[in-house]
Design a protein that fits this description.
Blueprint lengths: L7 H21 L3 H8 L3 H14 L2 H8 L3 H14 L10 H14 L3 H8 L3 H22 L10 E9 L18 E9 L4 E9 L4 H11 L9 E2 L10 E2 L9 H5 L8 H26 L12 H20 L8 H17 L4 H53 L1
Parallel strand pairs: 4-5
Antiparallel strand pairs: 1-2, 2-3
Helix pairs in contact: 6-8, 7-8, 8-12, 11-14
Subcellular location: Nucleus
Cofactor: a divalent metal cation
Keywords: Hydrolase, Metal-binding, Nuclease, Nucleus
Length: 403
C-alpha cells in the first residue's frame, strides 16, 4: 500500500471519537426536559406521596413545616373546598396545594425552594400561590369582621411591612427609616384577633392620613365606642389617644424608679399597657408566618397586599378554632348596663372624655395608695407590738429562771 494511501482504520477511529465528543456534549448540556426530571424525578405521584408522608408523619414535623396542626389543617381544607374556588385537580390534590401554600407563607421561602422541597415545578408553585392568595382573601373577608356597636375595647395600630416595588415607583414607598415598606393599619381585639386590616398604603403615609383613608374606605368609628390608638392618629371621635409629651412607652417606665406622678402619666401608663396587645399580636403573626417579615421580589405589590390579608385571615381562622370561655349571665348584664350608661353619659368630645378618664383614674389611684399606706402602717404596728410582747415575755421568763 502506498504511503500516501488513506488509512480506513484511522477514519473509523476519527468517526467514533467525534460521536463520543457529541455524546459528551449532550450529557454536559441537558435539555429542558432533563432539568424538569431533576427537579421532579417522580412526577406528580411522587409529590402526592411526599404530601401523604407529611400528613401521616410526626405531628411536630408537620407543625414546624406548615405552622398549623393536623386537626387545623383538615378543618382549613374543608372550609376552603366548600367556600372558595381553590380545588384539587387530577394531578394535584387540594391537600397538596394547601400544604405548598402553607409552607411558603409559613417558612417565608422562595417558590423555587418550595418546588424542590415538594418535588413539583416552580410554575406549579406559582399557580398555587396565585389561587391560594385569592382563596385566603375570602377567609379574611369572612373571619376579619369589624365589631358591632355593643363590643368594647379595640386597639388600632399601624405597622410597616417590608415591600418590593419597581425602581421607578419606589420614592413614595420609602418610610421615615429610608426603607421600602407598605403601611398596614390593624385593629385588634383583646383576645388577640384582628377586627380590621387595611394594607397597601405607601410607606411614606403618616398615621393621621392613613386613618382618614381607612375611614373613607370601610373603617367604622362609633361615638359611644372607642378604639385605643397611637398619638399619631390624632384625637377624633371614636379614638382615644395618649397625652403628647408625657412618658408613654413601657420601656420608659421600666428604667424609671418612680411611678406615675400625675393623672396624665397614669393615663399614658394604662393606655400603653392596653395597647401592647396589638404589638404582641402582630409579633406573633410575624413569627408564625415568616413571609410577613419580608417580601421577595417574585411577588408584585398586589400579591404582597394579598399576603397580608391571607396571613391575618388565617390567624383569625386558627383562633376561631380555639375554645373561648363564655360570659355568664351576670357579666352579660353588666356589659349591657355599661353600654346603656355609656350611650347616655359619655361626652362626644374625645379630649374631654380623655380628661375625665384621667381624672377618675387618678382619684382611684390616690385612694388606693392611701388605703395601702394605712394597711402597711397597721401591719407594721402589729409587728411592733408583737416584738415588744416577745421581749417582755423573754424578760419575765429570765426572771422566773433566776428565781
Amino acid at each position: 500500500m502506498p504511503d500516501n494511501a488513506p488509512n480506513r482504520g484511522d477514519d473509523d477511529d476519527a468517526v467514533s471519537s467525534d460521536d463520543g465528543y457529541r455524546n459528551k456534549k449532550r450529557l454536559h448540556f441537558p435539555t429542558v426536559f432533563d432539568r424538569r426530571e431533576i427537579v421532579n424525578p417522580g412526577g406528580s405521584a411522587a409529590a402526592e406521596e411526599f404530601g401523604q408522608k407529611l400528613l401521616t408523619g410526626h405531628e411536630r414535623r408537620f407543625v414546624e413545616e406548615l405552622r398549623v396542626t393536623k386537626v387545623q389543617f383538615y378543618q382549613l381544607a374543608d372550609w376552603i373546598s366548600v367556600n372558595t374556588s381553590m380545588k384539587g385537580s387530577s394531578r394535584q390534590s387540594l391537600h397538596l396545594k394547601l400544604m405548598i401554600f402553607l409552607y411558603v407563607i409559613g417558612q417565608g421561602c422562595t417558590q423555587r425552594a418550595a418546588a424542590h422541597h415538594f418535588g413539583v415545578s416552580q410554575s406549579s408553585v406559582s399557580r398555587i400561590m396565585a389561587t391560594g392568595l385569592e382563596a385566603f382573601a375570602d377567609i379574611h373577608r369572612t373571619f376579619v369582621v369589624q365589631p358591632e356597636p355593643t363590643e368594647v375595647c379595640h386597639e388600632p395600630i399601624t405597622k410597616p411591612k417590608s415591600a418590593w416595588v419597581p425602581e421607578e415607583g419606589q420614592r413614595k414607598w420609602y418610610n421615615r427609616k429610608s426603607l421600602i415598606t407598605q403601611n398596614v393599619l390593624c385593629a385588634v381585639r383583646l383576645d388577640g384577633t384582628f377586627s380590621y386590616v387595611l394594607a397597601g398604603c405607601e410607606g411614606s403615609v403618616n398615621d393621621a392620613s392613613l386613618l382618614r383613608h381607612a375611614r373613607s374606605k370601610s373603617l367604622k368609628l362609633y361615638a359611644d365606642r372607642f378604639y385605643v390608638g397611637d398619638a399619631g392618629f390624632g384625637a377624633c371621635t371614636g379614638l382615644l389617644v395618649p397625652y403628647i409629651g408625657i412618658r408613654y412607652h413601657l420601656n420608659d417606665w421600666k428604667v424609671s424608679l418612680e411611678g406615675p406622678q400625675n393623672k396624665e402619666e397614669l393615663y399614658n401608663l394604662r393606655h400603653s399597657r392596653l395597647r401592647i396587645i396589638v404589638e404582641l399580636t402582630f409579633g406573633r403573626v410575624k413569627r408564625k408566618f415568616r413571609i410577613m417579615r419580608s417580601s421577595p421580589p417574585e411577588y408584585d405589590i398586589y400579591k404582597q397586599i394579598l399576603i397580608v390579608y391571607a396571613c391575618t385571615g388565617l390567624w383569625n381562622f386558627l383562633k376561631s378554632l380555639e375554645e373561648k370561655p363564655a360570659l355568664n349571665k351576670a357579666q352579660e348584664e353588666y356589659l349591657q348596663s355599661m353600654t346603656a350608661w355609656a350611650r347616655d353619659n359619655l361626652p362626644s368630645d374625645p379630649e374631654v372624655l380623655r380628661d375625665e378618664i384621667a381624672i377618675d383614674q387618678w382619684e382611684e389611684h390616690l385612694a388606693y395608695i392611701e388605703e395601702m399606706r394605712q394597711y402597711n402602717n397597721a401591719i407594721l404596728q402589729r409587728k411592733h407590738e408583737k416584738h415588744l410582747g416577745d421581749e417582755e415575755w423573754k424578760a419575765a421568763r429570765h426572771f422566773r429562771l433566776e428565781r
